[in-house]
Amino acid sequence: xxxxxxxxxxxxxxxxxxxxxxxxxxxxxxxxxxxxxxxxxxxxxxxxxxxxxxxxxxxxxxxxxxxxxxxxxxxxxxxxxxxxxxxxxxxxxxxxxxxxxxxxxxxxxxxxxxxxxxxxxxxxxxxxxxxxxxxxxxxxxxxxxxxxxxxxxxxxxxxxxxx
Length: 163
Hints:
Elements: H1 2-9, H2 14-43, H3 52-56, H4 66-96, H5 104-133, H6 137-160
Helix pairs in contact: 2-4, 4-5, 5-6
């Protein structure tokens, strides 16, 4: 049990660090997905009949005009971003990176700034996929997740925390 605790709290070993980053990222992704899809379903409709979320849960939804769906995709991602990013920050400082390169408020501000930029890039990609290619909301969401993951890891490791 002591070795498991050591692995979870060791922030120096690059392999364990990326593994823990991935696991913490998975938890933050779950918070993001749950938040986004609940918002896209219940508050700001952004889902289509061909979305996997709709098919998995055999949901009946009303059609949403493309312009409204695009705007609601952005709103849903904004709400999900706030929730999932705080989840990621808390998990990252406890399990992945060494905090203290900056004071706590600056660190948190940089964390949100970098994440905001990467999510902005990802959401823009999603908007292009929806408007330009007519892709599903889910496919656009997945493209956003992949792009933000890659940008965030590099920025957090090298600019926000002590590697």
